[in-house]
Amino acid sequence: xxxxxxxxxxxxxxxxxxxxxxxxxxxxxxxxxxxxxxxxxxxxxxxxxxxxxxxxxxxxxxxxxxxxxxxxxxxxxxxxxxxxxxxxxxxxxxxxxxxxxxxxxxxxxxxxxxxxxxxxxxxxxxxxxxxxxxxxxxxxxxxxxxxxxxxxxxxxxxxxxxxxxxxxxxxxxxxxxxxxxxxxxxxxxxxxxxxxxxxxxxxxxxxxxxxxxxxxxxxxxxxxxxxxxxxxxxxxxxxxxxxxxxxxxxxxxxxxxxxxxxxxxxxxxxxxxxxxxxxxxxxxxxxxxxxxxxxxxxxxxxxxxxxxxxxxxxxxxxxxxxxxxxxxxxxxxxxxxxxxxxxxxxxxxxxxxxxxxxxxxxxxxxxxxxx
Length: 371
Ligand code: GDP
Ligand code: MG
Description:
The protein is α+β, with helices and mostly antiparallel strands.
């Protein structure tokens, strides 16, 4: 993708696009501002106009982020599991997320005005913490996965005991399996007279989900989101599963994570919720988030409280973003502002080029279909 639009090249040099076009004409190239030129030509133009060209290959720009490097074994500490709730419509995903949220011992103390930031944490009486993604449904899960994001450690599959396995239950099983994420079955609505948990366990067998009672190793818990029964057992199951997964991260490094939600708010501008995967995010950190970048001006937790920092598995809302990150974008703290800006602009350029190519292709297709 070593191409740049004439306009973008002009912007980067703070020159007028007409001057770039004139320069190109001198080189025997006719181009409009929206057209793209190759890297060699761009370099000629840059030098012709008295600037110094600096080519940045993808690897050069992105390498500093160290997204792929492994943390040394001795730096790893246990982290909270990140849990997503999936299941068929009306089986009780939202109700269950609400009920679980209320079990948080900290919110209880604070009087609990909860903010919707796309994820929340529950602190149990035992001191253990669980992070829940509170955008239920597999759309969010799939959308994030399509962007290459893997934030979920465990999927809670909600199945209503009076309705059993339904199409979206099967969908969710497929998604979780494809992502290699372990499932815990929450058999919900067990308060209902028509509840038949055995039927649920039986039917799950047909979809190769073998719960414990059926000789398998998938944890399953009978719950009622309505009257709160079984929630403690569900939380125990989550903790047990997470122990088996040995979830760990290095909290002592530049933070990296995933954007789980973003929105524009009056008075606050662009705000995004980031789920930190490793490292610790702090106020003042320079960062890149997809093709957006910025410097952390404030951090807010899911209770709307200002916090100083956020470590692994902690969802946190950040203020101070230039641009528009989207759910599933990766997030990384950079050593300085220049680096963040360089990476963001580079990615933005790639996105634009992709769009231009897509539009061009669209036009050609339209031309052919018109014939
Ligand atoms: P979602 O579509 O999966 O998010 O399902 P909701 O949480 O919106 O629940 C759908 C309906 O089922 C609502 O009317 C809930 O009040 C009801 N519901 C959810 N959980 C329970 C439960 O444990 N018992 C009973 N009786 N009703 C429930
Ligand atoms: Mg719902």
